[in-house]
Amino acid sequence: MTTPERSTAERTGIVVLVSGSGTNLQALIDAAADPAYGVRIVAVGADRAGITGLHRAAAAGIPTFVCRVQDHEDRAAWDAELARRIGDHEPAFVVSAGFMKLLGPQVLSRWVVLNTHPALLPLFPGAHAVRDALAAGATETGCTVHVVDSGVDTGPVLAQATVPVLEGDTEEALHERIKAVEHPLLVEYVGRAAREGITVTDGKASIP
Ligand code: GAR
């Protein structure tokens, strides 16, 4: 049995935001190569120039843009400009894949934003989740796909996967093992949100 080809028009457009190496972005790029996945990455945005994530997008022929906080008068102006740059590509929703800035109300009021975080939220929110889990002596940690709200990693959770912390783990080694489960989890939930739709009501996120 063959899966019917989806035309570009049937694919859901998403903008992916990155700040670094972009391995989660790469997992999405690879998945989106299959039309049946139902996702077209219409642009990749970053808060800094020259990062590997942007190179990955360019190599895949995806339009990119950079919107740096320091080029704006204040956070509100940056938020408005980021919303304008995202809006240029008319995505159905936005994915924050290692984007290390808090998004503002202009972006969050216009799009559902899915985020991937390298810990079992609500444990270890923030920018150093893997380091914090190690420092706390956690015996297991993992990753979370959730919808972004105005807090720091506080939005409604869609899915989580667990990773054991091993004796003698370094931050780098543990983060690599987390990424190994994070990539397929993000790919699964971005695909489902694109194909089935995602709603956020009264602080609860659901994919039918
Ligand atoms: C990912 O592990 C992601 O969960 C994390 O940054 C990494 C980015 O890796 N995000 C956060 O810590 C957000 N609080 P990547 O650039 O290789 O995808």
Description:
This protein is 33% helix and 24% strand. The protein contains six helices and nine strands, in the order βαβαβαβαβαββαββ. Helix 1 runs parallel beside helix 6. Strand 1, helix 1 and strand 2 form a beta-alpha-beta unit. The longest helix has 26 residues, at 171-196. It has one domain: Rossmann fold (3-Layer(aba) Sandwich). With 208 residues, it is of the alpha/beta class. It has helices at 23-32, 52-59, 75-87, 105-108, 129-135, 171-196; strands at residues 12-18, 39-46, 64-66, 93-96, 113-117, 140-147, 157-164, 199-201, 204-206. Residues 18, 20-24, 53, 97-98, 116-118, 127, 129, 179, 182 line the site of glycinamide ribonucleotide.
Strand content: 15-25%
Instruction: Tell me the helix content.
Output: 25-40%
State Rg: 17 Å
CATH top level is Alpha Beta
Widest sheet, order of strands: 3-2-1-4-5-6-7
Low-confidence stretches: none
Please count the beta strands (DSSP E, at least 2 residues each).
9
Number of domains: 1
Count of helix runs: 6
Summarize the main sheet: 7 strands, mixed
Q: What's the CATH H-level superfamily name?
A: Formyl transferase, N-terminal domain
Name the hetero compounds present: glycinamide ribonucleotide
Pattern of helices and strands: EHEHEHEHEHEEHEE
Mean pLDDT: 95
In the CATH classification, which architecture applies? 3-Layer(aba) Sandwich
Task: Tell me the span between the first and last alpha carbons.
Answer: 25 Å
- Principal-axis shape equals globular
Offer a few descriptive terms.
208 residues; alpha/beta; Rossmann fold; 7-stranded mixed beta sheet; 33% helix
